[in-house]
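Q: What does the assembled structure look like for these inputs?
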Amino acid sequence: MRELRKDPIIKRWVIIATERTKRPHDFINFKDESQAVFCPFDYGNEHTTPSEILAFRPDGTEANSPGWWVRVVPNKFPVLTNEIEPERFGHGMYDVIKGFGAHEVIIETPEHDSYMATMPYKQVKEVIWAYIKRFKELELNKNIQYILIFKNHGKEAGASLSHSHSQLIATPVIPKRVAEEIKGSKSYYKFRERCVYCDMVTQELSEGTRIVEENDLFLAFEPFAARFPFETWILPKKHRYNFGKSSTAEIDKFAKVLKNTLFKIYKALDNPPFNFMLHTGIKSLKDGEDYYHWHLEIVPRLTDIAGFEWGSGFYINPVPPEHAATFLREIKINEEDFNED
Amino acid sequence: MRELRKDPIIKRWVIIATERTKRPHDFINFKDESQAVFCPFDYGNEHTTPSEILAFRPDGTEANSPGWWVRVVPNKFPVLTNEIEPERFGHGMYDVIKGFGAHEVIIETPEHDSYMATMPYKQVKEVIWAYIKRFKELELNKNIQYILIFKNHGKEAGASLSHSHSQLIATPVIPKRVAEEIKGSKSYYKFRERCVYCDMVTQELSEGTRIVEENDLFLAFEPFAARFPFETWILPKKHRYNFGKSSTAEIDKFAKVLKNTLFKIYKALDNPPFNFMLHTGIKSLKDGEDYYHWHLEIVPRLTDIAGFEWGSGFYINPVPPEHAATFLREIKINEEDFNED
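A:
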């Protein structure tokens, strides 16, 4: 069973995907399961993943063999799949869509113990190129409304394998969170005729107190209304709508600011579990070029989400973003360490 | 520092409350902290909590002394407090409100190892009465826009003490989640001239496949678009807007359905961590009596929330609500066990 169901009240979609987990009683004490030692993302184990969709590998090496430096494969337990049509139907008062979409894994490095925080800039850049390539290809599919690129790092952040990887899920509807951002930035634009994200960049640069890292094209900062301790956003300084249209120079500079930011978090908080999510404009939205602005949100998983947060959509953050930014700015980076030979 | 800050894009408020936690580096490996053995909610330790706001106790016993059966105290580390005014101000493009509100703890029983799932019906009823009393009193405060009653059970669900308790947070703004429900149910009402929750009750009763527990006044079921395995909602079967106006008969029947539902979850999933949240109409909303409907949402914490969920607002649920409901319905309850002498 794989279907999307819509909450009739707040229009929140959920994906019911039973291929991933099994029977109800598997949840009893499931948290005790230990992680497997075998890693399907290591060299030599390529045959244990579904066949690769994209790989950066030397000319002449065979698909699904070692030698690659970035590799993209379908998720072995996809929550959505392109093997079915996105048929819509009703179930009494409820709405359902068959589980159409895509679910891919971007294996960021063949090195089992390397993280985005610790790998060379060049490798991070290659990962971003893989994101761009997959994004642009999936964007062409008319049934796909959105493509979310994200990363789970650490068990507490939902990673089931420790080998560094990101994921991509393409959905037949616009996710609620993204729709909210689009709606909010549109209403801001109507009022001020400016992009709200551009205004944030301006205010953050002028205040300076929440900045974590920057270069000429990108800014990493703790948002003023940060939900979580050390929540960090990365934005292009200039107005940019569609991540997939990034220039080579932008990809270079994005890789650098992303890597430095993750390194600071890694150092400051001793390799904490975290998630990041890329929010971007996309062709299917049709509208939004003027007022929506792509960005990446990093959320370290340091605090528990409890009943108040679930019940209210409010978050309680015990660390003011200004303090978190000061703490992260103090971490020094020797860029030479990450400029590969 | 205690303030509410608003995300300028999606209008999400966050509470920055530094009184609860300390310095940024306290987050390093903080997860290893073990729980204290001393329990401030046990008899004899009343002086270690802030002074009680409400207690059900025998006539003639002194405030803040043993003998009580339900006790309400201010949270020792309140995220919001009524000691300041809810002053609003701007910070450049950002909005801020001083951290006005209330944060209370409802100690549900003097028995250290009793849970709502295992205590007698009578005790659950008393807890509901305490909710009602606090709700009605706080509802009179004109600066309070909303009162969220919720429960964190188990460490993974955010409970810092294992002794059975609920909490209440009163806020100077309507929480986003509640505002969304109100908006959604209003738009449904405009279209159909019926309450969306009443329609759900009708469909759930007629289908039967997602029902967990019921009596003549209340229904507990797995929502069609459940975000989480074993997510369960409890609703009054008849249209009821304001929880605070519940009749004695309704309180009796709500206590019973709540207790039975929690017992089934407790038994079926071996005492899992969970949260519950009460969503209700409230005087300050002014509008909504026709279309909003109070309800309680129970979310067992069995799956990890990862990057996809954070980034999209979409949830992936590996257990269809129909399977979860079947599994819970199979748990038999001997009501005699909970009818106290």
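The mean pLDDT of chain B is 91.
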